[in-house]
Amino acid sequence: MDTSTSVTYDSSLQISQFILMGLPGIHEWQHWLSLPLTLLYLLAPGANLLIIITIQHETVLHEPMYHLLGILAVVDIGLATTIMPKILAIFWFDAKAISLPMCFAEIYAIHCFFCIESGIFLCMAVDRYIAICRPLQYPSIVTKAFVFKATGFIVLKNGLLTIPVPILAAQRHYCSRNEIEHCLCSNLGVISLACDDITVNKFYQLMLAWVLVGSDMALIFSSYAVILHSVLRLNSAEAMSKALSTCNSHLILILFYTGIIVLSVTHLAEKKIPLIPVFLNVLHNVIPPALNPMACALRMHKLRLGFQRLLGLGQDVSK
């Protein structure tokens, strides 16, 4: 039996599963993308796990900035592990069916991890702002207790505020189409299949994007604008270079996130080329967890030395 066959258009019926069709327009050869995606999937948990172990192993890295990086690595592992197995199962084994509860759980996990990641980036921006603009107060303000409390608040806030997204999606009535032109359970893709009104769903999705992620991004860019203004007033070129080097990796990641998010949520090309917004949506969930460790390791000298020491390739980081 063909699992991709949609149920009949009868409002009295309730479908029991969704069919994730994959990337629209390239269903016949999308399995070729499984190789680079597999490499990214292996790289994301492996590289982030290396960061966590290195930070735990090297006492010189037991600082708030590196603790935040370790927390970001945990979130990246969770995000990659949530979405990648199902995407690869679609490409490898044509396993497109997913039950409604599993789909709603995936919607929650994606939204929760993504919003937590945004909050961690904000904490990292605040950490750099205090370190560069208020260096004398830094040791007394940014402590392990501060990191613990900030992380707890971020997890609690985003964990609670994203709960309504899958709950509202689950309350919709799905009686006709069950094919989602996507590799994962996108909230907008799922609720577009509903037979009843989805205005509340769209409103809450928009509010979540602007209130949570939008406010985080605004504060992040404001922090780095103040940092840049302060750095440009430094008389020493060496001091300026050192200050900027601690922010480069964060800025690279944040700019990448922002660009991909803007392109994927606008759906400007959806009518002509539906592949583009779907593919960009997959990329902004897959690539950052794999690139975060490399971007940070390349710019953070202590962490890079920690990698070398852990792998037996270098000297003590404390030297």
UniProtKB/TrEMBL annotation:
It is a multi-pass membrane protein. Keywords: G-protein coupled receptor, Membrane, Olfaction, Receptor, Sensory transduction, Transducer, Transmembrane, Transmembrane helix. GO terms for cellular component: plasma membrane. Its main location: membrane. Residues 47-256 form the G-protein coupled receptors family 1 profile domain. The chain crosses the membrane at residues 32-55, 67-93, 105-126, 208-231, 251-269. One of its GO terms (molecular function) is olfactory receptor activity. It is found in: Membrane. Gene3D superfamilies: Rhodopsin 7-helix transmembrane proteins. One of its GO terms (biological process) is cellular response to lipid. Odorant receptor. PANTHER family: OLFACTORY RECEPTOR 56B1-RELATED, OLFACTORY RECEPTOR 56B4. This is Olfactory receptor family 56 subfamily B member 4. The gene is OR56B4.
